[in-house]
Amino acid sequence: MIVGVPSEIKSDEYRVAMIPVGVEELTRAGHKVLVQAGAGTGSGISDERYAESGAEIVPDAATIWKRSEMIIKVKEPLSDEWPSMQAGQVVFTYFHFAADEKLTRAVLESGITAIAYETIKDVRGNLPLLTPMSEVAGRMSIQEGAKYLERPFQGRGILLSGIPGVPPAEVVVLGGGIVGANAAKMAAGLGANVTLLDINLDRLRYLDDVMPKNVTTVFSDRHNILKALAQADLVIGAVLIPGARTPMLVRREDLKKMPHRAVIIDVAIDQGGCIETSRPTTHAHPTYIVDDIVHYCVTNMPGAVGRTSTYGLTNVTLPYALQLANKGVEKASRDNIALAQGINIHQGRVTNQAVAETFKLGYSSAF
Ligand SMILES: NC(=O)C1=CN([C@@H]2O[C@H](COP(=O)(O)OP(=O)(O)OC[C@H]3O[C@@H](n4cnc5c(N)ncnc54)[C@H](O)[C@@H]3O)[C@@H](O)[C@H]2O)C=CC1
Ligand SMILES: CC(=O)C(=O)O
């Protein structure tokens, strides 16, 4: 199979979808890998390293899209890339369809098979291709939150840790999955008081066991969310219903009950966001203010730390890429149920139930 790795074109996206060892593995298995010139630069990987590993370096994205039977990316295809998608091609990347109807319709019309990293689900219910980037984003959310709480960045001027004699910040984390747990651990490590909310009581029991004493677990209902928001200096949005649009947990009217110039980092923005006033932002312009609350809603947070994120991502994507290349989509997905759950759109049909329900489109299974 010919496998193409184009450069990412999203704003400040420094990740690349394959590292040289991936090229070596695919080449050894008899496949050809095309890598766009400069694709690895943001992660510190030179064209020479890819070429030594067996890749053909291709100067432009258009040629990669045209020649490849499977495209491996990091972020969803942007509108500039839509005309390059070809019927019958497999595209393996994050898609987050439920947050973007135009993308969903463009992919349906293109006739590609869209395999979304974020809905690949293993037998234990884990999302193995989302987990490492959620670890990055969860940890980063506290770094970013700490920064935007500073007054010169328009925040309320609070140091997360406090100091002897002055209390620490109140951090509220909505959702105790991978993002939420990583955010809570980081915030607690800095000395903040953390309230971690989730609807999954088994998950709360586990978190209550493993988190430090300055993390309090609370069942996520409207009453408890409002109570937590009233004290919050920093709120992290970390809720997910896999494949679906994020449930809205904070309404616009709730912002008025929060302390002035508190900061919201809505990590869940890639699936639509869990705050009514959230809208996607970029690393170049990460924040905006609504009702005196600072909002940070960057859809590719891990892209800013490419040297960490690229390795975290490719550690988990490569085994699936190899299965797809070796067996083709149909056999690979029949042999691996986790992979089958990643197929969101197959040749003009929606094959993920949550995406179909979000846009009231028909659903059918891929094979
Ligand atoms: N902006 C960015 O750059 C990035 C965004 N993300 C996004 O972050 C979000 C969270 O991802 P993960 O932590 O990996 O998901 P996860 O599935 O590990 O955790 C989600 C948690 O939300 C909980 N939840 C569901 N409904 C809830 C409610 N009403 N109240 C409270 N909790 C509720 C679930 O029980 C679960 O524990 C996803 O949308 C993911 O795509 C992840 C990485 C990077
Ligand atoms: C999960 C995701 O969309 C990202 O890492 O950018």
Automatic annotation (TrEMBL):
Top-rank EC class of the record's enzyme: oxidoreductase
PROSITE patterns: ALADH_PNT_2 (PS00837)
Keywords for the protein's UniProt record, in alphabetical order: NAD, Nucleotide-binding, Oxidoreductase
Gene Ontology MF term list: alanine dehydrogenase activity; nucleotide binding
InterPro entries tied to this protein: Ala_DH, Ala_DH/PNT_CS2, AlaDH/PNT_N, AlaDH/PNT_NAD(H)-bd, NAD(P)-bd_dom_sf
Reaction(s) catalysed by this chain's protein: L-alanine + NAD(+) + H2O = pyruvate + NH4(+) + NADH + H(+)
Entry annotation: catalytic residues: H96, D270
E.C. number: 1.4.1.1
SMART domains: AlaDh_PNT_C, AlaDh_PNT_N
Biological process, per Gene Ontology: L-alanine catabolic process
Top-level taxon in the UniProt lineage: Bacteria
Binding residue positions for NAD(+): 134, 198, 203, 220, 239-240, 267-270, 279, 298-301
Family listed: Belongs to the AlaDH/PNT family.
Designated name of the protein: Alanine dehydrogenase
Gene that produces this protein: ald
